[in-house]
UniProtKB/TrEMBL annotation:
Entry-linked Pfam families: CRAL_TRIO, CRAL_TRIO_N
Official protein name in the record: CRAL-TRIO domain-containing protein
Gene3D superfamilies tied to this protein: CRAL-TRIO lipid binding domain
SUPFAM superfamilies: CRAL/TRIO domain, CRAL/TRIO N-terminal domain
SMART domains, per database record: CRAL_TRIO_N, SEC14
Signal peptide: none
Origin species: Lolium multiflorum (Italian ryegrass)
Length: 387
């Protein structure tokens, strides 16, 4: 298998060497004014050595690391795009996503590069969601946050799946915010983690809180499927493990019918834990990196007065991200104030596997709605119009 994998990487690499502009720039990197060799680590990262940023003190320093890396990133004309200085790793990610089939992986990557080009994804971190009250509303209804790092150094993201309502802005703003989170992860958070743990870190962990998930809440299934399609087709293999916690009956019923449809590689990534999953999560992360909804029995996505709400607009991570985007916008457009406006990103078409999963979930929800188990609730499909 190792020999076959190396041959696949070699073939894929040869295909990518034929890449022409403007896709080449999107995949590789623009030339920086600093003296460097293409494919080598950019000088700004060599400066990111923080005495306080060690694994033993990571929770106290991870925001500082993000700030330092983010500041260095924003001060130079250089900009990592898709492969983040590690083209081989990117090729491997796309090969894994297509079961090591080189032609399929190549098509997937080319489609992704074209998607980035057509939707100006390379500059998404210079397009703040304005005004700030709108961004706050998005943070209140698309619950996601960075809580710390695993023992192996992967950033730990928390998602309040069950309590995210997606009802305070248009779909375009939610999609823009999600893509900005992805790009900030790849350009700032992961490089910061790599510096802090003194090794290359390319993946994260996600803790998915299903508290509040019910039939009426799943009216947002189309929004969730849109986000999933964006991630699967353009950011493959960036999550090492998905931990599902606080799963109610609705999730369990859907999971039972969806699990057989998943590829073995995908199933191995998803771990459904009992309750808040604290004991299991403590095997892979320290207590201080646990999401607030996992720190005590009976807790959910809502935070208590003695816990930091990682979803909040006021959380240091979200403040750092939002200020970073505003700084990028000001550095590129020095004339006039920042303007309100959403990106109209074209939603990728889900692949056949994902489309089948969505269809199966909808069918199961309709079965639950019509069943005589006392949990019948209204379930109306929603439609996301293209831009």
């Amino acid at each position: 298998m190792a020999a076959a994998s190396e041959e696949a990487i070699k073939q894929f690499s040869a295909l990518m060497e034929q890449l022409e502009e403007p896709l080449k720039t999107t995949f590789q990197v623009p030339i920086c004014s600093s003296s460097r060799t293409v494919g080598s680590l950019h000088p700004c990262y060599s400066y990111c050595v923080f005495p306080c940023a060690s694994p033993n003190g990571k929770q106290n320093s991870f925001v500082l690391v993000l700030q330092r890396v983010g500041n260095l990133w924003s001060q130079c004309c250089f900009c990592w795009h898709v492969h983040q200085g590690y083209p081989r790793g990117t090729l491997v990610r796309f090969l894994k996503a297509r079961e090591w089939n080189v032609p399929k992986a190549h098509k997937m990557l080319m489609d992704s590069l074209n998607w980035r080009l057509q939707n100006e994804i390379d500059t998404v971190l210079s397009k703040p969601i304005m005004p700030s009250d709108l961004y706050r509303s998005i943070r209140d209804t698309l619950l996601v946050g960075l809580t710390g790092y695993s023992k192996q150094g992967q950033p730990v993201y928390a998602f309040g799946v069950g309590l995210s309502t997606f009802d305070k802005a248009s779909v375009h703003y939610y999609l823009q915010s999600h893509i900005q989170m992805n790009e900030y992860r790849d350009r700032v958070v992961l490089p910061g983690a790599s510096e802090m743990f003194a090794k290359q870190i390319n993946t994260c962990l996600k803790v998915m809180d299903m508290t509040g998930l019910k039939l009426s809440a799943l009216n947002q299934i189309k929004m969730l499927s849109t986000i999933t399609a964006v991630d699967d087709l353009n950011y493959p293999e960036k999550t090492e493990t998905y931990y599902i916690v606080n799963a109610p009956y609705v999730f369990s019923a859907c999971w039972k019918v969806v699990k057989p449809l998943l590829q073995e590689r995908t199933k191995k990534k998803i771990k459904v834990l009992s309750g808040p999953g604290r004991d299991e999560l403590l095997k892979v992360m320290d207590y201080q990196s646990l999401p607030h909804f996992c720190k005590r029995e009976g807790s959910g996505s809502g935070s208590s007065s003695d816990e930091v709400d990682c979803y909040s607009y006021d959380h240091p991570f979200h403040q750092q991200l939002y200020n970073f985007v505003k700084q990028q916008a000001l550095s590129q457009d020095t004339v006039g104030p920042l303007k309100q406006g959403s990106m109209h990103v074209k939603v990728p078409t889900p692949d056949l596997e994902e489309a089948k999963i969505i269809e199966t979930i909808e069918s199961e929800l309709n079965n639950l709605r019509g069943g005589g188990d006392g949990i019948s609730r209204s379930f109306n499909r929603i439609t996301i119009e293209g831009p």
